[in-house]
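Fold sample X.
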Amino acid sequence: MNWFKKKTYPDFWNQYIAHFKSKQNKDLDTIRFVVFDTETTGLDIKKDRMLSIGTIAVFNGVIKVADSFECYVKQDLFNAETVKIHGLLKAGVNKKLSEQEAVIQFLDHIKNAVLVAHHAAFDVAIINQALTRLDLPKLKNKVLDTGHLFNKTKLDTSKLHFSLDHLSDRFNIPQHDRHTASGDAYITAVLLVKLIAILKKKNNKLTLDDLLRSNNRIGLL
């Protein structure tokens, strides 16, 4: 009868889940958005691994630099070809955490925030694969994709997907530290603030549901 026993989870997961017990407010001015990015050993969600995670929070249209998180992950897998993109060497000077500790700290930072990324499905899937390796469920946070939000503005309907580089150029966002997790998170946070401002001009009663509403999948896999 052991299979009737309820599965138990570690304390850090239970603490994370506890943040979702209260219903989330849908007023955009009261929501904590956490913009995040992962640098990885490659683009194969199941095979490749995280190298670093960078986040920065946005609240009421303001980027909260003090509310940020950055970590580097020990590399069990190493792909020399990707170093020229992210610049992270296997034996670099940055202090590195185990994948488990990186996930624990990431969950503690995000809590029940609305997660935001550009082409968000990839970054969410990378985190979820790490959770699967820890025998844990997937992220519970709501997720926004800045690529999808740009499509909602209808400023350019020539194609469905636009790169972060393209949108940074379009909105005159400096690309400092591009292709680092923290740098890309900051660029995406600036983009988020600009896109929400544009969408609010079109709909002054804009809510989280309006941002989440879509018939399309989130981001790119």
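Fold sample Y, listed below.
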Amino acid sequence: MTLNAQLYFSFRSPYSYLAIGRYRALADMFDVEIDLRPVYPLAIREPDFFERNHPNWLGYTIRDMMRVAQFHGIKFAPPKPDPIVQNMTTREIAEDQPHIFRLTRLGQAAARQGKGLVFADEVATLIWGGTEGWNEGDHLPNAAIKAGLDWEALLSEVEAEPDSLDAEIAANQSALEAAGHWGVPTLVFDGEPFFGQDRIEMVLWRMNEHGLAEL
């Protein structure tokens, strides 16, 4: 029997990137469907989040994400450009955000077609894997093609239906909170939330209890 889970994900979250490729590999190896549920990052939902954190938070997080990438052999580099326009000195979030809304809506449009997981993995690898100017040229169209999507149709859907896509994204956030968490990456399986890129082995353990089968 195919198992089902939901992965709550943000394109701005480095830990989401560090998790999604491994969750994609899990879905390729086992009889489980992992549905992507994109959400807007904390920079959009809670613009004062970075101001409220301890001064050491950012430095530690950067150190940790880099060593996680090294540990797992995942290509990792600061995004150029950042999906969120932010002054990293003052931590102020800019009002004009040219990337994150389109990215998240693209992810939701891909999720409508059951290809959110692979699309988000391809795009996150561009953003966090060292591709400078990931938002330019053929980078995003090629990511869509690799995910088995029609880029022009996907883009047209995003441009034509921003409000309905945003409503679905808001519903994703509500569902995440109803499941017992608020941050990303969080995978919810059988109503149980597993937060963080370091919970994948525990997810696999729990799925095995429910009869997870190899493909």
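Sample Y note: The first strand starts at residue 3 and ends at 9.
Also: Residues 3-209 form a domain with the Glutaredoxin fold (CATH 3.40.30.10).
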